[in-house]
Specification:
This protein is an all-alpha fold and 133 residues long. It is built from six helices and no strands. α2 (16-30) crosses α5 (75-94) and α3 packs across α6 (102-127).
Length: 133
């Protein structure tokens, strides 16, 4: 498996982004849980709910087809998405974000929707022994 990841261009450094890439790659493409993520597109979920702050921060255009297809988004987009959620978490944890700010609260709401879908599928896969349910 390590060779597969290296062949995909993933580097094993100590940075948070590299750890995130490794973890997401394993879940989406290697582990038995991958079947639960074939229809996971949190960007389409956000767009369908008119929640577009994270989408805008990622630089995705409103007409991009990635926002309408309910299938796993390209890996680089998923890494950017989870990196953005991690940045939101860091801003909150380290105090640079004001939780009384409307925009900050909307970003938190959107991050919660993404994480709820991700963790729900991951827990379902783990609880079912990797079977798609």
């Amino acid at each position: 498996m390590l060779d597969t990841l290296k062949n995909q261009g993933l580097k094993f450094e100590d940075g948070e982004k590299s750890k995130m890439q490794y973890y997401l790659f394993n879940i989406f493409y290697i582990e038995k849980e991958q079947a639960n993520f074939k229809t996971y597109n949190p960007l389409a979920t956000l767009k369908s709910g008119n929640l577009t702050r994270i989408i805008t921060k990622l630089g995705i255009k409103p007409e991009d087809k990635i926002l309408t297809e309910f299938e796993l988004s390209p890996f680089d987009v998923m890494v950017k998405l989870f990196s953005e959620i991690y940045a939101i978490r860091c801003d909150l944890f380290h105090g640079s974000a004001d939780i009384s700010d409307f925009d900050t609260n909307k970003l938190i709401d959107e991050a919660n929707i993404v994480l709820q879908g991700f963790l729900g599928r991951l827990f379902d896969a783990k609880m079912s022994g990797g079977r798609v349910i």
